[in-house]
From TrEMBL:
It catalyses: 2 L-glutamate + NADP(+) = L-glutamine + 2-oxoglutarate + NADPH + H(+). Its EC number is 1.4.1.13. The keyword Metal-binding applies. Belongs to the glutamate synthase family. Keywords: 4Fe-4S, Amino-acid biosynthesis, Glutamate biosynthesis, Iron, Iron-sulfur, Metal-binding, Oxidoreductase. [4Fe-4S] cluster 2 binds at C32, C53, C56, C59. One of its GO terms (molecular function) is metal ion binding. This is glutamate synthase (NADPH). Transmembrane segments: none annotated. [4Fe-4S] cluster 1 binds at C22, C25, C28, C63. Signal peptide: none annotated.
Length: 507
């Protein structure tokens, strides 16, 4: 009997098959990329090994007779409020492997979600609400530096802004698809985001993996990212997008770099990233040319020179303790957009301890950064974008009321195309065909179908945002930005309310 690692003896999930309905069609065998289902030659029927199950639910969703159920393993350890099963299983895994624990997706840790403690206002008798079905409701927003004073000149009865506006990104919804690199997710998803963004009049972000040559045509709806690994970065790439984003940090893994395993570097990824086929693509933790705000300024202006000052330059950081001071430095270094990524932000792979223990909630970081930039009188010098934990349109509305100009959605976009947050993206075997470059798996995502689902999601959220704006008596997203009087806290202490800059409900 071969040695079975102790971690596999305590499975997270159990597979339950209703044998009276199973027709032995082997669909589950083909659908499970972790080989939890298999054909048992001895018994001449399908069988399973629950220890291999990641809880992705792909088999249950595809079973033609709906006879599969995936449950949390009901077998429990002795109750212990301190040594929870997660800690015990982590130790089993590490003593089996000797390696660091890895996780995909955003942190599931049981920590406060401030969105859930914020309630929106609604108009009643005075300042009546607005019906978005009958009256205009503006969701369009522009990202980029705004002038200190808006001066106008009149020519033959028409007014024009005096002077040149800095470069802007125009968004028809205050939503963008977050950075997810080519390689960590596959080409079909990148194409779907590019198509959906173009159809909607918003943008998607390449992430740090470069831009596939066949997607250059979607450049007007693309933000191209420059990260510490400089994968796929060249002059044409920088000039292909509507903006360039310098990624300094990521909410899911602040302070550490990235690692795309060699198994995910196929020919297309290798060509696009400009890395050898099958070799690991390692992004260093720091940019080796950025050790100060002055260094960052040099890179921002090098990119502005390379793009002839046509597009805004954005800088993305993780939400950490001193985010307001860092954001202030970034704006003073010439960035047109600052992106703050919260600790709930998704990732293809992060050390579990980092993902669940480093960084701060995006709600607090956003409010603190917006305050700091306002206090310093430089809020208009850059737009503020947040990412990392937008689960629904109400989260978006609350983020904008706290001071964001727009938000990135990453995990929600993946969920829209089937992701079940199983957290095993780092295996490269995503059964939903998302975080995988295996040919048989990635074809599970049809770019046209995925693009339609993504566009549907953004439109649905757009309708809901309009409803919420109208309910508050506002007719444009601009009127909501930083309008914290439209928020009230419930169940928050005074320190939290002070940081968020909102009153408690009842006041
Ligand atoms: S997919 Fe469903 S019906 Fe087919 S073999 Fe698996 S469990 Fe049985
Ligand atoms: S890993 Fe996914 S597809 Fe495989 S058995 Fe578990 S739920 Fe089913
Ligand atoms: S992308 Fe795939 S592997 Fe990653 S969490 Fe979602 S379903 Fe799981």
């Amino acid at each position: 009997m071969p040695f079975k690692p102790i971690s596999q003896k305590f499975t997270d999930f159990v597979i339950v098959r209703d044998d009276s309905r199973c027709i032995n069609c082997e669909v589950c065998v083909r659908q499970c990329s972790y080989e939890a289902h298999y054909w048992d030659d001895t018994r001449q029927r399908v069988s399973f090994d629950s220890s291999k199950c990641t809880g992705c639910h792909r088999c249950a969703a595809q079973c033609p007779t709906s006879c599969l159920t995936i449950r949390r393993n009901p077998s429990e350890f002795r109750e212990n409020a301190f040594w929870t099963p997660a800690f015990i299983k982590h130790i089993y895994k590490q003593s089996d492997t000797g390696g660091i624990l890895l996780s995909g997706s955003g942190s599931p840790a049981d920590k406060p979600v401030y969105w859930d403690n914020l309630q929106l206002d609604a108009s009643q008798v005075t300042n009546p609400s607005i019906d978005p079905l009958r009256e205009p409701m503006e969701l369009r927003t522009y990202l980029g530096a705004k002038p200190d004073i808006a001066a106008f000149e009149e020519t033959a009865g028409t007014f024009r802004l005096k002077g040149e506006m800095p470069p802007q990104i125009r968004l028809e919804y205050p939503l963008m698809f977050a950075a997810m690199s080519f390689g960590s997710i596959n080409f079909n998803l990148h194409k779907a985001m590019a198509q959906a963004a173009t159809e909607l009049g918003i943008v998607y972000n390449t992430g740090e993996g470069g831009l596939h040559p066949s997607l250059y045509g979607y450049g007007a709806n693309t933000i191209v990212q420059v990260a510490s690994g400089r994968f796929g970065v060249h002059k044409d790439y920088l000039n292909a997008g509507a903006a360039v984003e310098i990624k300094v940090g990521q909410g899911a893994k602040p302070g550490i770099g990235g690692h795309l395993p060699g198994e995910k570097i196929d020919e297309e990824v290798s060509r696009t990233r400009m890395v050898p086929l099958g070799s690991d693509a390692i992004s260093p933790a720091p940019h080796h040319d950025i050790y100060s705000i002055e260094d960052l300024l040099q890179l921002i202006y090098a990119i502005k020179e390379a793009t002839r000052y046509r597009v805004p330059v954005s800088v993305k950081i993780a939400a950490v303790h001193n985010a307001p001071a860092i954001a202030s430095g970034i704006v003073r270094a010439g960035a047109d957009i600052v992106v703050i990524d919260g600790f709930r932000g998704g990732t293809g792979a992060a050390p579990t301890m980092i993902r669940d223990n480093v960084g701060i909630p995006i709600e607090l970081a956003l409010a603190a950064v917006d305050n700091r930039l306002r206090d310093e009188g430089i809020r208009n010098h850059a737009s503020l974008v947040v990412s990392g934990g937008m689960r629904c349109s109400a989260d978006v509305v609350k983020a904008i009321a706290l001071g964001a100009d727009a938000v990135y959605i990453g995990t929600a976009a993946l969920v829209a195309v089937g992701c079940t947050l199983c957290g095993r993206c780092y295996t490269g075997k995503c059964p939903w065909g998302i975080a995988t470059n295996e040919a048989r798996l990635k074809k599970r995502q049809n770019p046209d179908v995925a693009a339609r689902r993504l566009a549907n999601l953004i439109r649905a959220w757009g309708h809901e945002i309009q409803e919420m704006l109208g309910g508050m008596g506002l007719n444009s997203i601009e009127s909501l930005r930083g309008n914290r009087d439209k928020l009230r806290g419930i169940g928050l202490n005074q320190v939290e309310l002070d940081i968020l800059g909102v009153k408690h409900a009842g006041r």
